[in-house]
Amino acid sequence: MAEEKDAEKDEKDGAEEGAKKGGGLKRIIILAVVCLVIVGISVGGTLTVLKMTQPPAAPAEGEEGAAEPVEEVKKDAIYFPIKPEIIVNYTARGRQRYLRTDITLLIRDVDVIAAIETHMPMIRNTLNMIIGGQVYQEIQTAEGKELMRQQCLQALRKNLEAEIGKPGIEEVLFTSFVMQ
């Protein structure tokens, strides 16, 4: 009898261990499925993002749209300082005043640098004439400074257009502006 009880006890223990092992196997299968789902979502999301960031495919020859112009890639900015600074005198309300400004030109074409250096006397003369021709009280305001900056930009573009055949300058920047 004691042997039967031991045999029954061993069978019960074996059944409990089998249940535990089956539960462990079930847990491993569930984790594997969850991992596969996460990997699938990750791959799908990556492919979606890559498709959205890719430029549109170029149409094959003979298809419509082949004649569309290709956008130019914007070149890196080159900041070219005008040295030495520009200093002009003003008479305002019977007193001598002056303006000292550092000017930097924003260009995107390396070839324009050589043209600017070659024509620096003409550029400095143009800047002196425009800045010196302003009314002192008007350039004390932000609007007056912006108007003067636009006038300098237009005049310099016109000068370079006449000399090298292209405007060459994208912006005129006042990097220092002192009025006394």
Automatic annotation (TrEMBL):
TM segment ranges: 28-50
Region spans: Disordered: 1-20
Annotated GO CC locations: bacterial-type flagellum basal body; plasma membrane
InterPro entries associated with the record: FliL
Pfam families hit by this protein: FliL
Membrane topology: Single-pass membrane protein
This protein's record includes keyword Cytoplasm: no
Keyword annotations of the record: Cell inner membrane, Cell membrane, Cell projection, Chemotaxis, Cilium, Flagellar rotation, Flagellum, Membrane, Transmembrane, Transmembrane helix
Subcellular location: Cell inner membrane; Cell membrane
Gene Ontology BP terms: bacterial-type flagellum-dependent swarming motility; chemotaxis
Family note: Belongs to the FliL family.
Function: Controls the rotational direction of flagella during chemotaxis.
Name under which the protein is recorded: Flagellar protein FliL
